[in-house]
Design goal:
- The protein has helices spanning 38-50, 101-110, 126-131, 191-208, 228-234, 263-281, and strands at 11-16, 28-33, 55-58, 64-66, 71-77, 86-89, 92-96, 113-114, 135-136, 139-140, 145-151, 157-161, 167-168, 171-172, 178-185, 187-188, 241-242, 245-247, 255-257, 290-292.
- It is built from 6 helices and 20 strands.
- It binds uridine-diphosphate-2(N-acetylglucosaminyl) butyric acid.
- Uridine-diphosphate-2(N-acetylglucosaminyl) butyric acid binds next to α5.
Length: 293
C-alpha cells in the first residue's frame, strides 16, 4: 500500500461501502480512510492530492448512493469518534463535523438553546448538514451558522465566516472539499418549550416519512414552490419497484432498499421517476442525494 505507507492503521483497502451507507448498498472503495485527527486528515489529503487520487468525503452515509461498482479512489470518513465534539459557551455552540445532528440537537436542548430543532430526525452529521444546508419545513442549519472551518483538497485549512457564506435551499457556496467544524449562535429558550417543539417536529416526521427503512432521505430536491414527493405521488409511482428498490408508500420522495436491492435498481427507479415527472409536469427533478459512481 505505497500510497498510504505508515498510515495503515487508518487506511483499509477494498472496503465495502454497503457497510457505511444507510442504503446498505454499493461496491467497495479502493481505499477507505478514517483519520483520527486533523493532522492525519491533512496527511491523507496531501497524498491523494499529490497523486491525483479522487477523494470522496463520507459522514454517516445517510445521503449517499454508491454504485455497485464502488469507487476507484479514497473514501475519507469524518468519523464521529474522532471529529465528534460539541462544546457550548453561552449561546455559542461549536461542533466538529463528525458530530451527529441528533447529538447536536440534544446538547442544545439540554442547555436551553433554540435554533437547531429543525434538524430533528435528520440522520446525518454536522459536516454533511452544513455542506447541503440541511433542514426542512421548520428551518435549516444555515440560518444559525456563524462560521465554518474547512479544508480544501490540497489540505489547506481555513475559516469561512457568515458574511461570505451563502446558504440557500439545500446548497451553500462552500466549495472546499472538507467541512471540519462549524460555529452556531443560538437563542436562549425555556428547555420545556424546546422539548415541545422537538416532539412536534419528530411526530410530523414519523407520520409522514419512513423512518426505519434503508433509504437516503428525500431523493430529489423540491422544485421551486413544489414538493417532489407530491409530484411523484401524482404520477402514480408510489409503491412502484425496480428489483429491490421501492418507492415508499408513506412518502414518494423516499426510495427504500429491500433485501435484494442493488444500486442499479435505485438508479433505474430514479430515471423512471424523472421521466414520468418530466413528461407529465414539464419539471426536471434534481437529485438531493449524492451519487458516487
Ligand atoms: N406529499 C404527497 N405525497 C407524498 C409526499 C408528500 O402528496 O408522497 C405532499 C404532502 O401531503 C404535503 C407536501 O407534499 O402537502 C409536502 O410534503 P412534506 O411536508 O412531507 O414535505 P416535503 O417537501 O416532501 C421537505 C424536505 C424533507 C423534510 C420535510 C419536513 C425536501 C426535498 N424535503 O419534504 O427533507 O423532512 O420537508 O420538514 O426538501 C430530506 O431533505 O432528505 C428530507 C426528507
Amino acid at each position: 500500500m505505497n500510497l498510504f505507507t505508515d498510515l495503515e492503521e487508518i487506511v483499509k483497502e477494498n472496503e465495502p461501502m454497503s457497510k457505511h451507507t444507510w442504503f446498505r448498498l454499493g461496491g467497495s472503495a479502493r481505499y477507505f480512510a478514517r483519520p483520527r485527527n486533523q493532522q492525519e486528515l491533512a496527511d491523507v489529503v496531501r497524498r491523494c492530492h499529490e497523486n491525483s487520487v479522487p477523494m470522496y468525503v463520507l459522514g454517516r452515509g445517510s445521503n449517499i448512493l454508491v454504485s455497485d461498482e464502488g469507487v476507484n479512489g479514497v473514501v475519507i470518513q469524518i468519523f464521529y469518534k474522532h471529529f465528534g465534539k460539541v462544546s457550548i459557551e453561552g449561546s455559542t455552540v461549536r461542533a466538529e463535523a463528525g458530530a451527529s445532528l441528533s447529538n447536536l440537537v440534544r446538547r442544545c436542548a439540554q442547555e436551553g438553546l433554540s435554533g437547531v430543532e429543525c434538524l430533528v430526525g435528520i440522520p446525518g452529521t454536522v459536516g454533511g448538514a452544513v455542506k447541503i444546508n440541511a433542514g426542512g419545513r421548520f428551518g435549516d442549519i444555515g440560518s444559525v451558522c456563524q462560521s465554518v472551518q474547512v479544508m480544501d483538497s490540497s489540505a489547506y485549512d481555513f475559516e469561512r465566516r457568515r458574511d461570505d457564506i451563502y446558504f440557500s435551499y439545500r446548497m451553500t457556496n462552500i466549495i472546499a472539499k472538507f467541512i471540519l467544524g462549524a460555529e452556531f449562535t443560538l437563542t436562549p429558550e425555556d428547555p420545556e418549550r424546546i422539548g415541545k417543539l422537538i416532539r412536534e417536529v419528530w411526530v410530523l416526521k414519523k407520520n409522514s416519512q419512513p423512518m426505519n427503512s434503508r433509504s437516503a432521505g428525500c431523493v430529489f430536491k423540491n422544485p421551486r414552490a413544489l414538493s417532489a414527493g407530491a409530484l411523484i405521488d401524482k404520477v402514480g409511482l408510489k409503491g412502484h419497484s425496480v428489483g429491490g428498490a421501492h418507492i415508499s408508500e408513506k412518502h414518494a420522495n423516499f426510495i427504500e432498499a429491500h433485501n435484494n436491492a442493488t444500486s442499479k435498481d435505485v438508479l433505474q427507479l430514479i430515471e423512471i421517476i424523472k421521466d414520468k415527472v418530466r413528461d407529465r409536469f414539464d419539471v426536471e427533478l434534481e437529485l438531493e442525494i449524492d451519487v458516487w459512481e
